[in-house]
Amino acid sequence: MQTKRATRAVINTVLTILGILWLFPVLFTVFGSFKGRQEYRLGNFWDLPKENLFGSNLIAVITSVGLGRSMISSFLYAFCGALFSAVIAALAAYAISHLNIRHRTFWFLFIYSGTIFPFQIYLIPVYKGYVQTHLYDTRFGMILFYTAICIPFSMFVLHNFFIGISKEICESAKIDGCTNLQILTRIFIPIAKAPISIVFLTQFTWCWNDLMFGLTFTKSPEIRSVMASISLLGKDNVPVLLTGCLLASIPTIVFFFVLQKNFETGFVYTSK
Amino acid sequence: MTNKDKKRKAAANWTNYLYLAPATVLIALFFISSIIYTVYLSFQNWDGFSPMTFAGLSNYLHLFTDPNFKISLMNTFIWVVCSLVVSLIIPLLLAILISKSSWLTGFKNIFYFPTALSATVGGMIIASMLSKYGIPQLFSFIGLPNLMQDWLAVPYVNTFIMIVMGMWQGVGMNMLLFLSGLKNIPSSPIEAAVIEGANTYHLYAKVIFPLLKPTTIVVLLMSLVNSFKVFDSIWVMTKGGPYRTSETLALTMYEESFIYNRFGVGSAVAVVLTVMILIVSYFNLKNTFQEPNIA
Predict the structure, then answer these.
(1) Domains of chain B: total
(2) What is the rounded distance in angstroms from the CA atom of residue B180 to the CA atom of residue B46?
(3) Which residues of B touch A216 (CB under 8 A)?
(4) pLDDT per residue as tens digits for the range A24-70
(5) Is residue B6 part of a domain?
(6) Which chain A positions have a beta carbon within 8 Å of B28's beta carbon?
(7) ipTM for this model
């Protein structure tokens, strides 16, 4: 369907104006992070920064607010959570799609049910359980929780992919003497590089961006996740806050650029 | 099959279940038991320290008479309805415009970029922008000093502002889904319609939108369920205030439990929220599992 040149010009203009509006808060954040606390308050927020205070804002955010520690903690939780859940989910997805198991649908739904319920319903019991088992405010507790919560969706995606692999491959591998585990590790996993990386990256992003659980299951600054720390920053020093926001967004922005090409293919695996 | 073969086969099958074990153990421990426990807790009184006492239905009855709960319910309803409109119409319009523009990749990335930020970061940025020294400051320059205040501190208005700002981060994903749906529309029905003299309106209403129905249903159901669960951005922008006027059910559950130490009431709110979401999710699940493709 051809678009007339005039129509296209109008569309381009409209989208450009909207696009500038859309990116405006990002520009606000970038410029704001270069300003000083007083400069932000006294001046007009339209003003360009007078001097380059980004460095000192960065140092303030990392040391006095402790965002550096939180970022390291979150990186640990998100990386381990995404990795462990991918492994556990791959095992389960392989079993349900290709192994000799009774009541497959039941097991599938049992694991998948983790995504159906709103996460709020898990908050209080896990909190209470963690307090009683002394997992509250521990790194291990956070990693364990994030691993568990990433399993259902990862299993769903990997199952979707595995079910498309024909059974003949398994049968011919068995004839060659492979065990079930070898079929999984030597055949399935190498083929599944694309969905596995999508799953890992999306789950890492989810864990990194989480606020509610990071806030509820931690207490001390060392264990706190990055978004929980950001949410506790006051509006007293806005430039430091904005610098913190930029810093905390680095992983997700990096993944955004990395995933760009893979998005379209990625969606195929996440839908039916 | 001899008995020995049967036993060997049963033994081999037994190890297959080991593959399922880590996943099911973690799910059962963390989630299945949590659901049961939350329901149980909703019938108790508990402040987090003292022993629990049985409360029967009093937590639920308390909710029906609590003005905060009614406000929260209303806000949740507003969020859900507005999100539906916002998540369907605007991403679709954007997707159509972008697909006809000269710079598809660029515009696609620009409008998706805010979605790549976390809800917490997005909320903090918006909250700073709308606070006293941000955008409202502009109004003092054009002679409306009354408007120079924290816009997020105005009861009820702030809910609508938050919904609009939520759109900034929210439309990216749906826009991508619609773009993908538009790309997958076969060209033959469109060409046939053009040959038969359809004008633009007919083209969209009678050909393109019906062909987009599968994508639209997925977007609709996903957005519906997600709009019930919004927590991060509201918490960071208003914490449900001022005076609990911008709370939604998700926040009420959190606040009743962890701020007011009324875990029984909080659990009851969680149950109410879950039932509402399950009803909506039923339609989502039906759509996802239309073809049996488990094994």
Answers:
(1) 1
(2) 49
(3) 254, 258
(4) 888 888 888 888 777 776 666 666 777 777 777 788 777 777 888 88
(5) no
(6) 110
(7) 0.82
